Each structure stands twice: as C-alpha cells, then as structure tokens.
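Continuing the batch. This is chain 6 of the set; chains 1 through 5 are on the previous pages. Same settings as before, nothing changed between runs. Recording input and output for traceability.
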Amino acid sequence: MKEVRIETGQPYVVTVGEQLSAIGTGLRERHAPCAAMLVADDTVNALYGDAAAASLTEAGFSVSRFAFPHGEGSKNLSTLAALLDALAAARLTRTDVIVALGGGVTGDLTGFAAAVYLRGIPYVQVPTTLLAAVDSSVGGKTGVDLPAGKNLVGAFHQPLWVLCDLSLLHTLSDEAFAGGLAEMIKYGVIADEALFETLASGDRTALEKSIARCVELKGALVAQDERDTGCRQLLNLGHTLGHAVEQRSGYSIAHGQAVAIGMAYIARAGERAGLCAPRTAERIGRALTANGLPVECPYPVAELVPYLLADKKRKGDAITLVLPERIGACVLHAMPVDALPAFLAQGEGR
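Output for chain 6:
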C-alpha cells in the first residue's frame, strides 16, 4: 500500500492498495461518523455497493444510497438534479459526507453535487476503474456534460480522501483497462520517460507502483496550478481531439481510447510541423498499439471541427494545445482556432 499526499488548498491523501473493506475505518480517521450518501452507477452498485455500505455502517456511518444508469449519457444535469434531490431527502448537512464509488462519470457527477449542495460538503473518491484511479479522481475537477460538449458545467472541489483499491480493477473489461493505460501513457509522455518505457513494454508486474507514480505526477501539477490556468493544462495532452472524437461517436468510443487517438494525432501533426522531436510520434504510436489502443480516428478531422470549436479550453479565437516536444517533456502551444483543423489534419495517416 502506498500513500500520495496532494498539496492543494485542502490537502488530502490518495491511498493506493487493496482495502475496500477498510473504507469505513479509513474515512473515520478523516471524518467523524455521520450521515453518508453512497453514490454508484447500477453496474458498480451491484458489484461493490453492499460491501462498501457495510464497511461504512460498521464504522458508525449512517448510509443512504443513490444509484443511476451507467454510462457517459448519465453525466448530465438531469442525473445531477436527481442526486441533489436525494441528498436533500436524506437531510444531509454540511457536516455529512458523500462517497463516490465508481469510474470517472460517478466521480465527476458526485464531486459536482458535493460542490454545489449546501454550497459545498465533503466527499470521498473511491475509483473503480484504472482511468479514474490515475486521473479523474485526483485534482478536484468535477462536472457534468451539456449537449454542446463535455464538462461544460462544473466546479473545482477537492475530495477529502481518495481510495484506489486495486482489487476493484479485476472486474474491468479489457477495453476499460486499456482506456486507463492510455491516461498512464499520457503521464509518461508529459513528464516521465522511464514510466513511458515501462508501459510501452507491456510490463504490468509493477502496476501499483506505476499507478502511484501517475498520481504523484498529477499531484505535482495540481499543487502548482490548482485552478488549471497554467502548467496543469499539460494534463490535457490528447484531450482536445479526444473529446471531439467521443462526442462525434455519440460516446460509443470510450474516453481512454479517444485520448489515445488524440495523442497519436497531436504527435504526428506536431512532428510533421517540426514542433516535436523525430520519432516521438512513432514511439507514442507503438506504446499505444502495444496496449491495445487505437491510433487512427474513424472520422475525418473536418467532421470533428464543430466539437473542437466548443472545447472548454478555447479562449476567444485561440485554443491551447499540448505538444510532446519529446517523450517526457511537453509544452503548451496556443493556436488560432481557424488554424486548428489544418494542423490536426496533418495527424491523419501514419
């Protein structure tokens, strides 16, 4: 078991290990027993909801539960309203706590509810996917989607604690696990060539160590830039195009796979424009392929333009891209919006 401290305005610990049964005692060390709302989608609720609720109850927490249909389609204002109504019906107060048990959709939705209910109450993240464990559960970004785009409504609200129980990853499909590996490869490209090489080799014997390293890398960027106005934006590598791919597919292409496509495209486009070191795109492509991830997009860039223009990272007539100068070092690159389609089109084809 490893603990990583995240130094934000409200510091907290990310625990990486195997101890869902200890969620109750772990939370009691950080918060006095109180009313707790356990939030999960219907799939995770069926798998782990009873065990999590039992652990919380045994530790002295009075548990209510809220379950919703799984999938990105539930990450919306309607589900948020239903969750807020459930919190009010359970009469939770500012001294109570919400527990998010699930992947990125559950964590983002629950965190946003915690941010706005009574103008902010504590919440805990218990990620059940690899992607959520290394990325969305850490850093305090919360929110829901609008028809116009992903994560267009949200707030920064840091969790009280994050518990990454690796045993929960055993029930993931190969596709879901690979999606998490895409985000892990992203961290290697951004800031750690040794981590990148470990993941590119397909070696998963040190998974706990690699997950903890990803959390450390994200924690360092979040500590420097909690509100996402500077270096934290490096974490968006592959995400500008990736979010557009997700939306164009009607979310049939999962987030991690879309980010993999985005990384492959931005690396190829950057290299062809002379902005990335030679072979950077080739190395990234091989690492993604070795982990069962796509490197080609089923849609031409021209079809993605409407989604790119709605990206929340857009500032006026410019958007900030993350370019991999080389493996282990990325830079932020502002680009005029009208130049973006032609630039990204350079990433089409190997």
